[in-house]
Inverse folding.
């Protein structure tokens, strides 16, 4: 069974290939993601993030999930030498880490319900488990940032996450916390990790680092990346090729 719904400002696809898949499982996943949107969206006036930014809610009084996300954000800031930061000009925006966390939580929800072969895809950031309907690893395409109808690489994954950060979909929305320069050297960086949380948090930081980001990923165990610069030149980490699918 496969469902696609629009939430969090993007299409979210959930496919479960286990024979036990049922509509209620999809409703539970999308219900959780709707809660995430209502809680963390900086664009919804009633969200906790918006209330924090208006001074109506202290972070210590926010929900438990907000504290989990804050701890993860702080860990990422430390892990990346400050290249990831949810604060910019005194504005709180945890969007750079919430999506990966939300996808992973949604996938974990399905796993706890006994499903073993499925994926959750939110705007191209994906967590996969098990195998596809043909009993093979899941195939995930990486878009050409200059032509979104074209897939330039396909990777095969099982029980892993993949996330892409870039400027080609939403414009310049990622900044370098160590300077005011506009990030123009690279257009996208795709990271594969043990789960989508790891992939997403390090993809955001690596993009903020510009050309240096690919070296950050290459130095971290369990992560691989594929970077495309503004001239269309691609650079990959040492073992990224291990995930690349053979042409069909």
């Amino acid at each position: 069974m496969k469902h696609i719904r629009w939430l969090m400002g993007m299409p979210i696809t959930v496919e479960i290939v286990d024979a036990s898949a049922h509509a209620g499982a999809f409703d539970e996943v999308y219900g959780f993601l709707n809660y995430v949107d209502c809680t963390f969206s900086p664009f919804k006036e009633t969200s906790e993030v918006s209330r924090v930014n208006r001074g109506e809610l202290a972070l210590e009084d926010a929900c438990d999930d907000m504290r989990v996300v804050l701890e993860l954000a702080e860990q990422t800031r430390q892990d990346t030498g400050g290249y990831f930061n949810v604060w910019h000009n005194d504005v709180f925006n945890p969007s750079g880490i919430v999506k990966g966390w939300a996808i992973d939580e949604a996938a974990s929800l399905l796993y706890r319900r006994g499903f073993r072969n499925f994926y959750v895809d939110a705007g191209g950031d994906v967590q996969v488990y098990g195998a596809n309907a043909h009993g093979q690893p899941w195939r995930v395409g990486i878009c050409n940032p200059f032509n979104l109808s074209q897939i330039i690489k396909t990777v095969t994954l099982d029980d892993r996450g993949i996330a892409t950060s870039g400027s080609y979909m939403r414009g310049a929305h990622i900044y370098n916390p160590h300077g005011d320069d506009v990030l123009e050297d690279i257009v996208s960086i795709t990271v594969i990790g043990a789960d989508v949380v790891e992939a997403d948090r390090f993809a955001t930081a690596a993009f903020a680092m510009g050309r240096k980001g690919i070296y950050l990923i290459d130095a971290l165990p369990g992560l691989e990346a594929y970077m495309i610069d503004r001239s269309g030149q691609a650079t990959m980490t040492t073992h990224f090729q291990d995930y690349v699918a053979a042409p069909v």
